[in-house]
Fold Sorbosone dehydrogenase family protein.
Amino acid sequence: MTTRFGLILLISSLLFASCSENGGKHDDTSNPDGTPEENTTPGKVVSSDKEKYSIDTITNKLQHPWGIAFLPDGRVLVTEREGKILIVKDDQLQTEQIENVPAVFATGQGGLLDIQLHPDYKNNGWIYLSYAKPGKEGGATTIARAKLDGNKLTGLHELFTAQPYANSGVHFGSRIAFDEKGYIFFSSGERGTMENAQNLGNHLGKIIRLHDDGRVPTDNPFVNTPGAKPEIWSYGHRNPQGLVYDKVTETLWDHEHGPKGGDELNKVEKGKNYGWPKITYGINYDGKPITDKTSMEGMEQPVTYWVPSIAPCGMALVTQDKFPGWKNNILVGALSFQHVARVEIENGNYVKQEKLLDKVGRVRAVAESPEGFIYVATEGPGMLLKLSPAK
């Protein structure tokens, strides 16, 4: 065991107990009741390193929220893992919900997950969903698209289902991002079987890239590799629950849960191997090493990593001018440590981070509205918060 890994093991063993849940698995589905420590009273001004902001609680009645999307008419759609799409209008939760939502494998971490609009939504009307699809052999991460007619989904069409199905209730991924060319990227977790991540013969533990209609791009890296799934863009991932595309730098970012320690923020590039489980900065939940290696030739290093784990979930890139001090920062939700990490990146390199909304609850989703406001969804308690600039 290297000295470096030995230090990581010691830190994880000493510190992780404070953020682990349900037998030490920090990325589980437990939803403890609680009260946020940071005051979310409307109008209260909070000072961060580079911005002052106020927090409005839109609702505190969410159940396992997962994804947030903004319609051009001003409505906000919020997914709940059990299979609901809620509607927020004028910053008020509506009694009406979106109808015709597909059936989901609402088991463990599975269910209805992310929701994103096509970049050209105003012209084509496509809404994309990721969810765990039920089957005879368990569930599988699935991507579908549909259109909205009033409050009803219409023309639902499945574009992709990760193979193979698995009875496991963990590690589905599954976030969606589009690049400036209209390709769709989405994440698929390794479903709790770590060896899947290095196997190009399945879709598990991978970032997938498709045309927006589900076709496989001919320039995907493994299209001509015998036995490999042609949809794969990158591999060696564990459970990526954050994915954003920076159109300015043309960079795809993901974050993913490590085991006990070793959560990662990665710059995701074509055909590259991100190492799980051959390299990791984490250890097993029982305290035993998974590997003694934190690096290997041919495997990518994270831009930054967290030990102990913050259990990252949800991710937003600040692109608007509403919060100029945060522009181009990455906002990462934290389930275990219950905050939003504001991560500063310069020229693709990690600079520093700051905690926002400390102890607010288990942050499941973070999103920037078209106007530049920041929306945060939490569970335990189940809230939708809106951050606005304060002078």
Remarks:
- DSSP finds two helices and 25 strands in the chain.
- The first helix runs from residue 3 to 15.
- The domain at 3-389 is CATH 2.120.10.30 (Neuraminidase).
